Amino acid sequence: MSTTVVIADDQPMVRAGLRSLLEGEDDVVVVGEAFDGEQALRAVRQHAPDVVLMDIRMPVLDGLEATRQLVAAGSPARVLVLTTFDLDEYVFEALRAGASGFLLKDATAEELIAAVRTLAAGDAILAPGVTRRVIEAFGAAVPRTDPAGEARLASLSPREIEVLRLLARGLSNAEIARELFVSDATSKTHVSNVLTKLRLRDRVQAVIFAYESGLLRPGC
Fold first, then answer.
1. Which residues, at least 6 apart from 33, have a Cβ–Cβ distance to it below 8 Å?
2. What is the rounded distance in angstroms from the CA atom of residue 90 to the CA atom of residue 170?
3. What pLDDT sits at residue 142?
4. Mind listing the domains of the chain with CATH numbers?
């Protein structure tokens, strides 16, 4: 079954390039395009895509607010934010708004396609180096909005706390397994347990929770 995608970007050449890359794959279909956030919302309602490639700076309604509205409306579409390094602060806010990951606009075609497939499969995209830059630069300024964070953390075992710390560093399941000297299957189980106990949708939200709850501090 094909993965369906909506592309939201205010630059026609960018949209055309993304469409060309994605439609070169047998299992990916671009079902809609949008040049602003409001069009993106309409396209998602009309086409119910698996993934939305969302630029941040767009006219009428920016990608950040569009992402918030999609998540608030309960859309199952997974949002992949497209950005450049000079938009780090907006990326962090987009992740807090409910995006499932982000990708730099200079990513390779292979990275873009892999990201789309990953999100469509229900996982999240965490590029460790970029994620750390975002959190270290802007995490300190984020207010602690979850006063029940400590209570939620208390539901985790010591090993699960350790897993959450590693998740917050952007490690994959396989990397967590190597770090903890356990099998990949055990690592996957630990990660699933952490997300379930904390009532989090994906790995991106686990990173945000780790910092907002005070478990980790930027730069740690």
1. 6, 7, 8, 15, 19, 43
2. 19
3. 53
4. 3-125 (3.40.50.2300), 146-212 (1.10.10.10)
Mean pLDDT taken over the chain: 84
Which class for 1: exposed (0-12), middle (13-18), buried (19 or more C-beta within 10 A)? exposed
Does residue 152 or residue 132 have the better pLDDT? 152
Q: What is the pLDDT of residues 157-182, one digit of tens each?
A: 999 999 999 988 778 888 899 999 99
Residue 154: count other Cβ atoms within 10 Å of its Cβ: 8
Tokens 């992402």 correspond to what residue?
67
Of 98, 69, 67, 63, the C-alpha closest to 83 is 63
Kindly compute the dihedral angle of the four CA atoms of residues 66, 96, 203, 147, in this order, to the nearest 10 degrees: -140
